[in-house]
Design a protein that fits this description.
The complex is a heterodimer of chains A (212) and B (624). With 212 residues, chain A is an alpha/beta fold. Chain A folds into two domains: 6-136, Response regulator (Rossmann fold, 3-Layer(aba) Sandwich), CATH 3.40.50.2300; 146-204, Winged helix-like DNA-binding domain superfamily/Winged helix DNA-binding domain (Arc Repressor Mutant, subunit A, Orthogonal Bundle). Chain A is 55% helix and 12% strand. Chain A has helices spanning 14-26, 37-44, 67-76, 92-100, 113-145, 149-158, 164-171, 175-189, 194-204; strands spanning 6-10, 30-34, 54-59, 83-87, 105-108. In chain A, strand 1, helix 1 (14-26) and strand 2 (30-34) form a beta-alpha-beta unit. In chain A, helix 7 packs across helix 8. The model of chain A has no long low-confidence stretch (mean pLDDT 86). Chain B has 624 residues and is an alpha/beta fold. Chain B is 47% helix and 17% strand. Chain B contains 18 helices and 20 strands. In chain B, the strands form five sheets. Chain B has a six-stranded parallel beta sheet, with helices on both faces. Chain B has a five-stranded mixed beta sheet with strand order 15-17-18-20-19. Chain B is rod-shaped. In chain B, 36% of the residues are buried. Classes of the chains: A alpha/beta (212), B alpha/beta (624). The interface between A and B is medium-sized, with 26 and 31 residues.
Chain lengths: 212, 624
Amino acid sequence: MTIEVIVHVVDDDDGYRVAVSRMLTAAGFNVQSYASGVELLADLSGDAATERAGCVLADLRMPAIDGLELQEACRAAGIDLPFVFLTGHGDVPSAVSAMQRGAVDFLEKDAPRHRLLEALAQAIGRERAERAARAGREELKHRFAALTPREMEVLALVVRGRMNKQIAAALGIHERTVKLHRNAITTKLAVRSAAELTTLTRRAGLFAEQQG
Amino acid sequence: MTSFCARLLGGLLLVAGVVGLVHAQSPKRVLLLHSFGPEFGDLYAKDLRVQLGKRLPGDLELYEQWLVSARFKDAQEDEAFASYLRALFADRPLDLVITLGAPAAGFLQRRQQSLFQTTPMLFTDVEERRALASATPNATSVAISVGFPALVEHILRVQPRTRTIAIVIGNSPIEKYWVQQIRQTLDPFADRITLTFLTDLSFSDVLKRVGSLPRNSAIFYVMLSPEVAGIPQDEDTAIAALHAAANAPIYSYTDAYLGKGIVGGPLISGEAQGREAANVAARLLAGENAAHIRTPPITLGSPRYDSRELERWNIKESDLPPGSEVLFREPSAWERYRWQMLMIGVIVALQTVLIFTLLRERQRRRIAEMDAHQRISELARMNRRSVVGELSAAIAHELAQPLGAILRNTEAADLMLQAPSPANLGELREIMADIGRDQWRASEVIRRLRSLLAKSPAEALHVDLNEIVHEVVQLLSAQAAALRVAIDTNLVAGQLWVSGDAIQLEQVMLNLVMNALEAIKSNAGAERKITASTKIVDGVAAEIAVEDSGPGIPIDKLQLIFEPFFTTKEAGIGMGLSIARTIVERHRGKIWAQSRHGGGAVVRFTLPLAGKQADSTAVQLRSS
């Protein structure tokens, strides 16, 4: 299924919102515009995360809910779209704050076209990458879900670099049993080496403190 | 035997004691015999009495007699007086007789055999020429020596132009003697000066003569005996009359007249005479032999002058001989009224200081007033600036919108025109329209900003308050929106004309609405609303009110908030309401704050209405 990449424009100033939407449309983007962050949240909540693609282009200073608050609210609601902010005045503290919270960029409203388009492209790219990564992680989780609890225990020690003998001792089983578990793991996870196993495990985000 | 001796001894002792007592207790009897009457010619008698009193205190019985027979040439009169004296002192033997003046001395000399034969005598106040003539046993003299040449030399030195000297002298025998003496001794001066003897005249004639002397004259007063016809009884009066009548300076030989009208010069000192005489008298009373006492004559002393006479006759002190003493200096105005003048001087000085201080204070006050004026303008400007500073974010934002939109629109049009598919003309037209509108929006913001910053002096024009409210609300709409505060307006219909400065009134409004925004900003209450309203009061005044739904103002601070530097904002200056009040009051209005029903505050101000018929050509508030 192809997911439509959409630039979500949020600005309370009608004039600017219409103009920027026009320009982005003419530039080839799919644009959806909202007069306030509330509308955006309403629109995007409930949608499955995988169905959202694109980014948000938001004005910083808005009534009801301003740009930064919107960013926060989106994260809280699980809407993982990157933000590009526009501002009518150079506000350094807000800029710093925005960037710290992971905004892609922070632009003046009259920034030249190419800067704006670059930022949006970057945002969209990042979003895509993240989506892919997320999908990858999901898929991995499925794979690891096939492992039994005992196999997980063994895996935990394997990725820590323990020898079979040590694992056997730690778990109170025979070394041969350990070997058996290891075979099962590699089969289920479809890996070809211990290194790949470790990498995969890490990518799955399991066992946070992995000191290889 | 012993009782007799004892009585004899006692008697002797008693007698001795009495004798001794009598001797110890008996004072010295001294007779002062004057030549003339007590009022006349008694030149130095006072000095003599004083000195005698000093030298022989308590011990002295002084008798005084006046030999008036200098007037009389009659020998018989002389004799009668001698008998009188003899009788007077028959029971009181004199221890000493002192004569004053040549006539008295002559009188005693003539009667030597029959009067006071053994009494010691002291002749005083006789000129040495006269004293030398007498050689009397048990008599000695304290004489004076008057050098007439020296006196004339002195006159010529002090007043070199003197050509005539009028000599005032009487007609008695002694005076006749002196006329002759003077003529003789002053003969060497005949080529330099003319001597005129005013003798043998009645007193009034003397006065006439001394009053009509030729120029470059001087008067020399020797003596006027009481014989002179018409002479006042009292010598002081005579001298004064002479002094008043004289048209030339008067000189003399004795200091008795110094201070009574003579100029001065080298003079015989009466005090010196008295002292010497008293000394000799003491010696004689002590028992010394008169023949053994020789006293050198008293001579003319170092020059002394009366400064009043110097001034009268224009004699400069620099012309006086060295060692001169100037007496009777009249205290100058300074000396006389020194304290008064000092007081006046001090008062005048104080007043001058006061005047200068007042003038300077006035100057300072003027400067301060100008300064204050300027400060107020500056503060107003600063207030505007600070307000603008606060607004800069809002304004920049307001400008950024239209400008940004214009940019995007032109970019959009550009992209559309580049696209391969045919351009959507309808949309292009919309783009043009939007651009035009946004350009107008932008220039409006700039115009408003410029008018806010303009430092034009207060202009009294007709100003529409409704328009001002509109403007300010418009200006702050973005800010209000950003704060999620709604601003409502409730304006009286039509135009609300007042007389005043539009910019300043706008500033007042700006301050009030910004304060309202500020108040609500931190208020987490449900209602976030500002209402700006105008109305007419009593048909003569316009009232503008700005209500907010903020936390309100505590009752005790309702007045305080208008004070300078009162602020509850962290970064506030506290001048907003103070400046607003200054402006309102300068427009002859009033401004005050109240609590609002239902929470919050309301600030109202009134302004007198301008003539209601503001002409339609009333000046547009500002150029666009």
